[in-house]
Each structure stands twice: as C-alpha cells, then as structure tokens.
Amino acid sequence: MTGEELDELVLLYQRATTDLSVVRSATPDPALIGRLSTLVADARASVTGANGGAWDSFSHFIAVRFPAEVYRLWRWWVSVAVVFVAVSFAFGWWIATHRHVQASLLPPDQVKQLVQSDFKNYYSDHPAHDFALHVWINNAWVAALSLVSGVLLGIPTVLLMYNNALNVGVSAGYMVAAGHGAEFFGLILPHGTLELTALFIASGVGLKLGWTVVDPGPRSRADALAQEGRSAGAVALGLVLVLCVSGMLEGFVTPSPLPTSARIAIGIAVWMAFLTYIVVFGRRAVAAGELGDVSLHLRAELAPTSG
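and the corresponding structure tokens:
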C-alpha cells in the first residue's frame, strides 16, 4: 500500500471499531455484530500484524528466548558452577580425611544412620510420582529465590549457594569416609548434574541482576534493571521446565532398580542434551541479536555514545 492507503486503512479501522462498539450497546444484531467483528479482526491483523498464537509464542520461547539468555550469561553461571564444585569438594575432603571433624559435626549414631540408610532411603521412601513432584516444587522454589534475590546485590544468592555446597560436601564427606562413595555418586549423578546446572544458571542470572544494580552500563539504572529483570523472568520460566525433567529423573531414575552405570548414563545423556541445546540454539539466537526479553517491545532505546 501507499502511504495514503495506509492512512485510510487505519482511519477506517478506527471507525469500524467505534461502529462495532455502538452496535453492541444499542442494537445487538448478531449478524451485524459478527460481520463487523470479522472486519475489525482482519483490519487489526493488517494494521498491527497477525499474532501467531500461543503455540508460536511457546515454540519461540523454547527455541530462541530461553537459550539465548542462558547462553548470553554463560560466564556468570559457569563461574558459579566452578566455585560450587570447589567449595563442595573442599568440605567433602576435609570431613572425609579428618575423624575429629566428623565427630564434632554429628554423633556416631546419626552418622551411621545417614550412611547406612537415610541417604539411600531418601530417594525411595515415597511413591515416585509424589517424590518427583515434591523435589520439582522445592527445586523450583530454591532456583526462583536464588534468581530473584540477586537484585539485593547478589548477597542472598551467594548465601543460598554456599549452604547448598556445604550440604553436598558434608554428605559426600561422610559417605566417602564410610566407604560408601560409589553409592553417593551413583545416587547423585543421575539427576544431580541437570538439577545443579539449573541452580547454577539461576544463581548466575541472579548475580548478574545484582551486578546491574552496581554497574548499569550505558543505560539508566532503571532501564538496565528492567531489561535484566525481563530476561531473568525468561530464565525463570525456562528453568521450571528444566527442573521438571530433573525431578522426573530424581523420582523415577535415581531410585530405580537399573544398574548404577545405566542410571548415571541416563542422567549424563540428558544433561549433555541440555547443554548442547543451550549452546546450539543460544549461540544462534544471540548472534541474531536476541536478548532473551519476555517482551521485546519493552526494550529501551539507547542513544549513540562515543568512546
């Protein structure tokens, strides 16, 4: 269309919407209302662009927005992962190699119960579907808390991950010291690789949100927080799905009678598939200029700067 034709289309669209409103309130003729509704809907699609529907939005979110944001911030959550593993290993090694530390943390009867029954039975004491739902909700809550609380300069996020690393390290230390190290890793690896990666991502995005408060870059602090907050929202929605998968692994695979090697292989395969998905789809989306915003039209315009 020419410019004049486009102007005429918008004007007629506005008139038609007004007519439709008047007809609905004054003379509710079903045939006329149906005809005007069709005209208005067609005109709206021409003026504002057709909406692809819920499925198109969902598929775009899965294929573009979520992996783009996770890939864009990979340095943050990979750093969290490295520190987490180092802290967990340090605590585990310290406890496993120092008897007096073991005795000072837990009495012998509790240690015996932990290594001989409690740790293993935790994964099988409840029906698989109930347990999977429970861990999904719990992990989603921890991930959301780690992500959202990052706006407080990242301090709550660091404390949450430190406590998680401490718990993993203490459990590993006692299990290894009692000669149950193979059992510990056989129960942790099937679901823990994906589950912990999701928590690393949530914490990394939370820390980025906290750093934005300190250094918003060329944007105003409000605009920077708005954009990073929307991007963090995209990550939170995506992690709900990721943690659902890890919850199913923890509920159905970890306590299953499959050989340990098979259970670990399933968990590692799912984890590698997730990382491949992030790298392939995320790198492509970032290269195309995707920032991961839930609402791209809300992005603030930036004036050119020099230097």
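(Above: one complete record from the training split.) Confidence is low (pLDDT under 50) at residues 295-307.
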